[in-house]
Amino acid sequence: MQTFDPILHVLEAAFTSTRAYTDPIRDVALSATFTEPNGAEVTTPAFWDGSDTWRVRFSPPVAGEWHFVTHASDPTNSGLHGQSGSFTAPAYTGDLPLLAHGPIRASADGTHLTHADGTPFFWLADTAWNGVLKAQPADWDEYLAERRRQGFTAIQCVITQWRAFPQDAAGELAFTGTENIRINPAFYRRFDDKLAAIARAGLVPSPVLVWACTPNDPGYYLPTADCTILAQYEVARYGAYRPIWILGGDGEYRGEHAEKWKETGRAVFGDSGGEPVTMHPRGVNWPGEELRDEKWLTFHSYQSGHGDSDDTLRWLQSGPPASNWNIAPVKPVINQEPNYEHHLAYQSRQPISAYQVRRALYWSLLISPTAGVTYGNHGIWPWMEEAGVPADHPNSGVAPTWREALQSEGATGVVHLANFFASIDWAALRPAQHLLAQQPGDADPNRFIAAAQSAQSKVVIYTPGDPIHLTHPLTDARWYNPRTGDWSDAGSGTEFTPADGEDWVLRG
Question: Can you point out the beta strands (E) in 110-228?
């Protein structure tokens, strides 16, 4: 049996095994080779979907008549091996960026992400870690539609059990055991529509394959072989939705831990670098030195986190993301978890404000080549149905409901941020702190001014409110208000003073 999703352009074919296996995940491997109209071939892994059913999902990259044939590691299984079929993929005429412009990859110069047709992709994600696990379908659709309207382009989520939500909303586990795990297809079956909904909303799914923060997380306690089995299953199940994969979530990937993740990445994604993959590390952590040469790693991610100490701020402003981005091989650099709005700051124990969120976003975008950034809200990541303290995070503070958080001041700031960067050639921006004659951040990191410039001498400068003093004159400059989205003339010269003590963006 096979079906074709006309919106997502995904073929799904089901196959019935003629044999029973004690351990279906390990006892048999199934794949399908698809032949496109010009004769080229693409091989895609299938996945076990419980009982005697295996499925394969495939997103054809070109229109036309396609044919496929299956290959099972057990050739005696006539229900799985040697099955064939065909289907017609129509030309895509919709407006979903992943289909209109093609899957995501790193740009040729390694500074940002781009679609297959060369269209730059601006990463602007939200951390809806628990959304897939907890949200009701109608609520999930409402959330995705609003995030698309607000200018977001990707959704970071968790698709297995983890410390903050060890079971799904039905009380089931993704797998059982701590070694030689047994995967539960019913757990994932309930997520199929949730992952597909992200793509249908015009957003890029960015699932974490294995969370790895605490001893209660699978990426922490599972052996390398089982991490690989779990990740391979998830990739086979959801790869047709053209996601950007996050192999590990919130973990330590340096030193003695690095080898496990290198082995897992190679086993799951190989050395082709074909699928977009990154790692989400724990806060104030840079695994780039250990992982930089891994061919499967498409871009560097980091987490500046939820601290507000001087040391934390200086790490964001001048640490490895700012100082090491140009070490070969150059790869895009993205802050996947800056300050969460409403989360208690680690040091001051005060709720993080929309201003602090905005500041972290703009700093992150300008201290390395502009590729994108992630927003987070304390009510969204745990998917709070009622206001309160998120599970397993007793020191994080009271979180609003997800629906209240959806329209927060910080989220409105993201709308204006998206509009600003859409108005310029953001992919050409490079850090340019040398443009500043004075840096207030040297004395107080809260007052750090971030500057970037393109090869065409276009300048973007973010100030938390301090006057901007430049080494060379800027002509025809304009102010952008990141709180309202309004523009105003700034004139020309070497000194520019904001109209008030709030944060502003200068473009010239």
Answer: 113-115, 120-121, 123-127, 154-158, 175-176, 182-183, 204-211
